[in-house]
Design goal:
By secondary structure, the protein is of the alpha+beta class. The chain is 25% helix and 38% strand. Bound molecules: zinc ion.
């Protein structure tokens, strides 16, 4: 799902690279206003939800394998009448099953083996169906529920909407996250996908309807038009949808390898050109995702767009509902067909598995099709948004708040950046291989997955324990502010001290590879510090003497308020420092604040035998002595350092 206003702000960055800082500020402020609005709306929604909580009473003693729905509507009237045949398999011996259905909708009858069943409405938006006797485990059967009524009006995200465009009535549904039961009897949670579905929609003949899967038939009878749809892939409740108005239908195709996939758009007649013009873009993005990740998940059916009046988009399975055909929205909703629809978040706490990937794919589209400056502008915009508050986790702490679940700062932008940072940390090939493994995993694909399932695939492919990364970035809150102190160390060496503070106490330290750019008038390079402790000291040979340094120049990390300080002395270095240790074919002795005298360096083995000795003089204040050690055999040594009459310093070194 995506809200329009934020998208418009993001689109500004994509198409107008030369954004003046004034405009930039305005866009950022606008985003904050949206967030404030969303929170207000979310608070309202929360009140509504608390009076009707929880969101699903459906029992788990049956597994839905098939749905056949017939909905009769008139876009000019906020009313639905229909029947839903639910094919189920009993998973636990049962004489009742419970489905979710808003109390506002009246159940007329429930048929089971051609007999009317007794049912009970406990006024908690459910219907308890009495099966008339016990069904044994693994019994496969079906109930057919006839119902009608006026769906309840929800606040933030209306699940069943009647509106108008150019004076013509339009009706659409949008169930994510909790709205399915507002208009049809269903399992309103995230634990059961129907394996296949047939849908029939009857409207007055002036309207055309759009829904999931393939259009199989259309019949006109007594001034009513009925369209028949079939969908033969598993589908979550919130991804079932229909819309109806005087649509023009645009039939096109997308070539995916040897497969010609139908691309079917349902546009308002006055917006037909927008949809026609966007077709090449849809094809390009479809090919990109199909080639980079896994084949389009619903390749035996279709992809398409259906125009609706919600301020954004919604990734209904095989048929994204679109406010407009802007580039960011097209990519976002199409990406959800893999991330959200093929693999659905297993709980609303894990919504970033849907939205983070959608944001990631939007950025990927910019990366592949726009200049680097556009990508960096988008990154800067997202980073400013993510770090605009010191706290908040990607993992949703309160799923009763729709505003929190769909928090654009945390579930969307920060979620997308968790993925970008995994790519940075693990490298492109491991990252993409892990994501493909996740999408191909039969335990999750066409089913549900949790954060831990994605983590497992990144760990398996990288052969690294990512618990700390996920603890910091997904479950923990905030971000680091880096402080870099650096000093030239002579002979093209630099001394670096990298420190960080964190914006939230839930994370003490963010372990990340931190890129640092060094440059002078003629040379420019980026080095990476594997930052694993605070006040981390490194000496690096750049091959030139830099005059300036920058933290994270290409925006690989979530961070803010970073600072760089150039000094003349080595900060955070002891008077005498030896590195690396264990030593390799050479090692370095760093001397701080030494301006005069003679230094005696002596190397002993553990039995006290002198291996090597050296006298050094002519110091500059900060000195780096490089000592060849290729000839030295493996083992432990003592390095004894004394200056004139100063006390002896002894360091244990290992080769
Ligand atoms: Zn989305």
């Amino acid at each position: 799902m995506f809200l329009k206003i934020l998208l418009a702000a993001m689109a500004l960055f994509m198409f107008h690279e030369q954004v003046k800082s004034q405009n930039y500020k305005k866009v950022v402020e606008e985003t904050f206003q949206i967030a404030a609005m969303e929170q207000k709306a979310a608070a309202l929604k929360q009140q509504v939800i608390q009076t009707t909580a929880p969101f699903s009473k459906a029992t788990n003693n049956f597994d839905i394998h098939y749905l056949s729905c017939h909905w009769m509507v008139d876009p000019a009237l906020r009313f639905i009448q229909g029947n839903v045949k639910t094919g189920f398999i009993i998973t636990e011996r049962a004489n009742t099953i419970t489905l979710d259905l808003a109390d506002e909708l009246k159940v007329d009858s429930i048929l089971f083996r051609n007999v009317k069943l007794a049912f009970y409405r406990p006024f908690d938006n459910s219907v308890i169906i009495n099966l008339g006797g016990f069904l044994e485990k693994n019994t496969k059967d079906e109930v057919n529920i006839y119902y009608k009524g006026t769906p309840p009006i929800s606040t933030t995200i209306s699940s069943f909407t009647t509106s108008a465009h150019a004076g013509v009535p339009v009706m659409w549904t949008l169930s994510e996250p909790y709205g399915g039961r507002d208009w049809w009897p269903c399992k309103n949670g995230l634990n059961d996908k129907a394996d296949s579905m047939d849908i029939a929609i009857t409207t007055p003949v002036a309207y055309r309807s759009a829904s999931n899967g393939m259009l199989v038939d259309e019949q006109i009878l007594n001034g009513k038009r009925t369209t028949y749809w079939k969908h033969r892939y598993p589908i979550a409740t919130y991804l079932v949808a229909f819309a109806a108005t005087n649509y023009v239908v645009i039939n096109d195709n997308i070539q995916l390898g040897s497969k010609l996939l139908p691309l079917v758009d349902y546009a308002y007649p006055e917006k037909e050109n927008d949809f026609l013009n966007a077709a090449p873009l849809t094809k390009r993005v479809m090919s990109m995702l199909h080639n980079i990740f896994t084949p389009y998940p619903f390749i035996n059916e279709k992809y398409g767009h259906t125009q609706f009046g919600f301020g954004g988009g919604m990734e209904h399975q095989t048929n994204s509902f679109m406010n407009n055909m802007s580039e960011g929205l097209i990519v976002h909703e199409l990406a959800h067909q893999w991330f959200g629809n093929k693999i659905t978040c297993g709980s609303w706490r894990d919504i970033w598995l849907n939205e983070g990937f959608a944001v990631y794919c939007s950025n990927l589209n910019i990366e592949k099709n726009y200049p680097e400056s556009s990508l960096l502008s988008m990154y800067r915009f997202q980073l400013n948004n993510i770090t605009s508050k010191p706290s908040g986790s990607v993992y949703v702490d309160d799923t009763t708040s729709v505003g929190r679940v769909f928090d654009s700062r945390l579930s969307y932008n920060k979620g997308g950046w968790v993925l970008q940072m995994l790519r940075w940390k693990l490298g492109d090939s491991v990252f993409y291989k892990a994501v493909r493994n996740y999408l191909n995993d039969p335990k999750f694909n066409y089913k549900y997955a949790y954060t831990t399932d994605l983590k497992m695939h990144f760990e398996n492919e990288s052969k690294r324990d990512l618990s700390e990364f996920f603890r910091d970035w997904v479950y923990g809150q905030g971000f680091p502010s880096y402080k870099l102190k650096w000093a030239p160390a002579g002979n093209n060496w630099v001394n670096i001290t990298l420190s960080q503070t964190t914006s939230d106490t839930s994370v003490k330290f963010f372990e990340m590879p931190v890129p640092i750019r060094f440059k002078n008038a003629g040379k420019d390079t980026i080095i990476v510090i594997d930052n694993n402790k605070n006040d981390q000291v490194s000496f690096i040979n750049l091959g030139f003497t830099p005059d300036s340094a920058f933290i994270d120049p290409k925006l690989k990390l979530i961070s803010a308020n970073n600072s760089v300080i150039k000094t003349d002395i080595f900060p955070n270095v002891e008077k005498v420092m030896v590195f690396p240790n264990p030593i390799g074919n050479e090692f370095k002795v760093v001397l701080k604040d030494m301006t005069e005298g003679i230094l005696h360096l002596s190397l002993y083995n553990l039995t006290g035998q002198l291996i090597w000795r050296k006298r050094v003089g002519g110091f500059n204040g900060n000195d780096l002595i490089i000592i060849p050690s290729a000839q030295l055999s493996s083992g432990n040594y003592w390095l004894r350092i004394n200056k004139d009459d100063d006390p002896v310093i002894i360091k244990r070194i290992v080769k």
